[in-house]
Amino acid sequence: MSSSKLKLDQSERVGRVLSDLSMGLPCIVIHEGQQALIVPLETIAENRFVTIKEILDTPELIISDNRARAVMTPVAAANLAAGPVRICPPEGAEFDWYQRLADPHFDREAGVAGPLHVRRVGATKLHSAALDLVKSAELIPALALFAIGDKLSALSDLPLTQVNATEVLSQKAAEPKLASVASANLPLEAYSVSRLHVFRTGDGH
Asked: pTM of the prediction?
């Protein structure tokens, strides 16, 4: 009997990565020979983040363009393209710096972020796939992205699930598209200008 029948298919591989991200576990995204370790900032434990950072050095912050516009001044965010926004952290940035920019929960106390070093070279399929994974795991659309280089063996104590960026993006493209059905103001105690949006797929579900 061929062992190939035991291999996971594309949806199973992506599903395993989503499960890991939900639990706060990093995973590896591969694209055209490049490998990156992605860390979900909403669920990762601080001590694990710090240990990975000691091994792989300082990661890039990847957030959605909507989140970037929320934390940056209007002038700084004026020319942002749609899609993942790559931010280089300042020297000595610690875990709380990443969390403050990632999580809207900190907006009231942190306010608008200071000058941020946005990488204007743009995002690749690897960055797009990484952000799509975090969104699909129903987490805050923000992650830390570590370049692995030749240091993968140093992470041997942490079992890591791997997925190809092309698989993630093709599965995302195959998902039913959502269309807005209705929206209305829904004031909340924390956010008085919040709105409720209702969506459905093209088949009416």
From this structure: 0.78
